[in-house]
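Lab notebook, design round three. We kept the backbone fixed and only want residue identities now. Task for the bench partner: fill in a sequence for the structure below.
Input structure tokens:
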């Protein structure tokens, strides 16, 4: 059942994104930013946590999950370090994912040559 819930949630988020691309004049970049901001806002309000418990990776892997991770890190850092945690918590929480993305991006750039269009 966990796999079905993850598929339904992740697929639903992708479906919404695709409909926004097809039916509006929003660019994909703006839609991605909206997803991250929605994750931050819903995470900050405590509305995203039930979705994470229900859908697991279907809610944490998409970009809304990245926004949720940022808000969770900020809440935890503010509780531990006060107002300074608002500046450091999100980056600290997401450091592993950001480091992995940079490392593998660099690795691919070393292995392959870019070709002009």
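Proposed sequence:
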């Amino acid at each position: 059942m966990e796999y079905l819930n993850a598929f339904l949630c992740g697929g639903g988020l992708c479906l919404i994104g695709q409909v926004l691309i097809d039916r509006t004049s929003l660019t994909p970049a703006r839609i991605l930013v909206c997803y991250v901001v929605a994750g931050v806002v819903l995470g900050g309000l405590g509305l995203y946590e039930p979705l994470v418990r229900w859908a697991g990776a279907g809610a944490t892997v998409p970009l809304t999950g990245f926004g949720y991770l940022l808000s969770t890190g900020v809440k935890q850092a503010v509780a531990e370090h006060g107002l300074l945690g608002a500046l450091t918590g999100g980056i600290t929480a997401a450091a592993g994912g950001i480091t992995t993305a940079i490392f593998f991006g660099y690795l691919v750039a070393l292995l392959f040559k870019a070709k002009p269009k």
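Keep this in mind before ordering anything: The CA atoms of residues 13 and 62 lie 8 Å apart.
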